[in-house]
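Figure 6 in text form: structure in, sequence out.
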């Protein structure tokens, strides 16, 4: 079969399954708003939980950084790309989160690939929560280690997997706050079981950092654990982009030898590192933003309950509405758009089959009126698409 033929077939199959993914060209239009083809929408689909992506302090730091250091690092960190802004950000992150070391990556996806890829060897086992992010599961399945998944957020399930004998080392992998469900992992139980088995725990806190815990230090801090490996990402609550691994000194030294993403990839732009240091300050001092987010979540959940919507137990900014059917999820997203609310339908394979959903996200920048508009739109859209039953 030719490449062209295979590509055409794969696209056609996606189309038939109602699973063709398409990007929409958007223009940001003030906090919490986007424009699409001239229309203005309230944005309930992004991950900018604290609304920092257009924060004046962070934009200014980026501009100052670019003026001082230029727009690119010019090389990998192992060549000439490790600059003062990178070192300062690594130090600030390590101090903030209570680890000896932090290593910067260009993206959370890259960080997960790099860390799991460099650590996991033949004979090791990786035990991952079944709903872990694609970047974690992919890294694990590409590694020479054996990948087993445990039932979502169920320490007993992990316990059973740990009971079977392992040849090599054990790495347990979970998210702090799950990206598509918004629920939090039982981190202390997972960490305890992992430690009893002599393994290491990796927590990817992409959706917890900045939002959960004191000063926004994340899910682990909130639940009182310090996993051996902590991944934080900066494209969500930090409003920017990039990621970091928090770990001990020898693990950092090891990764600097063996993590190819650190060795063969251009370092993060120094101006971005400066922006991230400003974002870290905004996050640390962001109690008012977190309080507003909590208020918005409460207002949404209360309103949704009154409308009889089937909410999940999530208490975070991610408030999914599980629809089940792919086509129906798409129709709902479209009906919400007609009502001025931008919400995305998430379908398999991003989520398990039969659990297509609207992934509604709330931010600190939404107003009470925004939330009420969303609730009203949901009520109407459900009436239109599902026939009045939520
Ligand atoms: C978004 C996300 C990532 C990827 O992070 P990027 O910096 O966007 O590449 C990794 N893990 C989880 C859980 C995520 O939600």
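Output sequence:
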């Amino acid at each position: 079969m030719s490449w062209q033929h295979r590509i055409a077939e794969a696209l056609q199959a996606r189309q038939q399954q109602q699973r063709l993914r398409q990007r929409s060209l958007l223009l940001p239009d003030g906090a919490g708003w986007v424009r699409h083809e001239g229309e203005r929408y309230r944005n309930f689909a992004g991950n900018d939980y604290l609304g920092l992506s257009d924060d004046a302090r962070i934009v200014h730091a980026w501009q100052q950084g670019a003026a001082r250091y230029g727009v690119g690092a010019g090389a990998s960190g192992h060549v000439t790309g490790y600059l003062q802004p990178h070192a300062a950000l690594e130090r600030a992150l390590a101090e903030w989160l209570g680890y000896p070391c932090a290593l910067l990556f260009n993206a959370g996806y890259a960080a997960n690939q790099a860390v799991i890829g460099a650590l996991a060897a033949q004979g090791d086992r990786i035990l991952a929560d079944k709903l872990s992010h694609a970047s974690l599961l992919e890294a694990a399945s590409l590694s020479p280690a054996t990948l087993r998944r445990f039932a979502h957020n169920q320490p007993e399930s992990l316990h059973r997997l740990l009971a079977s004998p392992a040849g090599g080392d054990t790495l347990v992998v979970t998210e702090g706050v799950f990206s598509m469900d918004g629920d939090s992992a039982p981190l202390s139980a997972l960490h305890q079981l992992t430690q009893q088995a002599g393994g290491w725990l990796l927590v990817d806190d992409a959706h917890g950092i900045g939002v959960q815990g004191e000063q926004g230090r994340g899910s682990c801090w909130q639940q009182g654990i310090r996993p051996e490996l902590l991944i934080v990402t900066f494209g969500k609550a930090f409003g920017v982009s990039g990621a970091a691994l928090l770990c001990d000194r020898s693990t950092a030294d090891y990764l600097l030898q063996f993590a190819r993403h650190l060795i063969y990839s251009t370092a993060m732009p120094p101006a971005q590192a400066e922006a991230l240091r400003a974002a870290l300050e905004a996050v640390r001092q962001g109690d008012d933003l977190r309080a507003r987010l909590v208020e918005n979540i409460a207002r949404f959940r209360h309103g949704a309950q009154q409308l009889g919507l089937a909410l999940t137990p999530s208490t975070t900014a991610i408030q999914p509405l599980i629809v089940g059917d792919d086509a129906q999820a798409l129709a709902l997203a479209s009906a919400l758009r007609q009502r001025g609310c931008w919400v995305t339908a998430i379908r398999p394979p991003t989520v398990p089959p039969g659990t297509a959903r609207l992934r509604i996200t709330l931010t600190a920048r939404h107003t009470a009126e925004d939330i009420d508009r969303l609730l009203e739109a949901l009520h109407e859209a459900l009436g239109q698409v599902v026939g009045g039953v939520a």
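Caption detail: The domain at 23-53+287-388 is CATH 3.90.1150.10 (Aspartate Aminotransferase, domain 1).
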